[in-house]
Design brief:
Order of helices and strands: HHEHHHHEEEEHHHEEEE
CATH class: Mainly Beta
Number of helices: 9
Distance between the termini: 24 Å
CATH architecture: Sandwich
Bound molecules: 2-oxoglutaric acid
CATH superfamily: q2cbj1_9rhob like domain
Structural class: alpha+beta
CATH topology: Jelly Rolls
Radius of gyration: 18 Å
Shape: globular
Strand content: 15-25%
Largest sheet: 6 strands, antiparallel
Number of domains: 1
Length: 283
């Protein structure tokens, strides 16, 4: 981490602004490998998170600008983010407030309930800005699972994806193959440019995609690390601001697989993530 994090100095109990996972959500998650919880995080907290991502990334736009000079500035800011060593990942290594945000106990509790494990650690976070297609710099995300790209030895992990703004169906929200968390690990398809339809056509016979639906600001989508998902283009002029963050069972061990969230932190192979950047956030 760049700076030591002094959580006591910035402590703010955010729990009144964070929702609950109910038994009905757990049942849906166990069955489908994904559950959507509307209005899980209060809009004012989403706005604060955007302001931190803006300060960190230099990207401040909410809409595709009309002015060509502003368009160039937008493209340059996005290129600048992806030129950085950790790209759009692991903001908590730079921003203590974001460390505090992602380590909130209620997010940990939510994932512990969904995974049915007694204790969870924080693993990762990613900024998911989906650029309007008109910008020419947008890219759809093809079908993939997340677990194969993480350096974790067991698939007891779940993504918490958060709509930081309202996301309409034409802004490219994620869709999921319902039940595909029961399928085998299919590899690092996104990193390797492989197509799940070609490799595993049977997946699309066995599991059906969820419907594209709009999400209010603050809606959370939790998916299992083995659930296949994708997101299409953002056909609007609005910037689709979203983030994700992974939590895993506290028993999970480090495998050494390269990953922007974990590289260079001195984690020990085959050990649990007993490291200040990976605290147990719920037990
Ligand atoms: O934000 C999105 O559209 C997709 C996110 C995603 O695919 C991922 O986090 O693995």
């Amino acid at each position: 981490m760049n700076k030591p994090v002094k959580l006591d100095e910035i402590y703010e109990d955010l729990s009144p602004m964070i929702g609950e996972v109910t038994e009905a959500h757990v049942v849906t998650f166990m069955r489908d490998g994904v559950v959507t919880i509307p209005d899980f995080v209060k809009p004012e907290l989403c706005e604060k998170v955007i302001s931190h991502f803006t300060a960190w990334s230099g990207i401040h736009w909410r809409e595709w600008p009309q002015d060509p000079a502003e368009q160039d500035a937008y493209r340059a800011a996005v290129a600048g983010l992806f030129d950085r060593p950790r790209k759009s990942f692991a903001i908590r290594q730079d921003d203590p407030w974001m460390f505090h945000f992602v380590t909130q106990r209620k997010f940990g509790e939510a994932v512990a309930k969904l995974l049915r494990v007694p204790a969870v650690r924080i693993l990762s976070e990613t900024l998911h800005i989906k650029q309007p297609q008109v910008s020419g710099i947008a890219r759809p995300l093809q079908w993939h699972q997340d677990w194969p790209s993480f350096p974790i030895d067991r698939a007891q992990a779940a993504q918490f994806w958060l709509a930081l703004v309202e996301v309409t169906p034409d802004m490219g929200p994620m869709i999921h193959l319902k039940g595909s968390h029961r399928s085998m690990p299919g590899g690092m398809l996104l990193d390797c440019g492989e197509d799940a339809h070609e490799l595993y056509p049977e997946l699309f016979e066995q599991y059906k995609p969820t419907k594209l639906k709009g999400l209010t600001q603050g809606t959370a989508v939790f998916h299992h690390g083995l659930t296949y998902h994708m997101s299409g283009p953002n056909r609007t002029n609005k910037v689709r601001w979203a983030m994700s963050s992974y939590r895993m069972s506290s028993t999970t061990r480090y495998t050494g697989q390269v990953n922007y969230n974990t590289d260079g932190l001195g984690l020990k192979l085959r050990e649990v993530f007993d490291h200040p950047n990976f605290p147990i956030v719920y037990s």
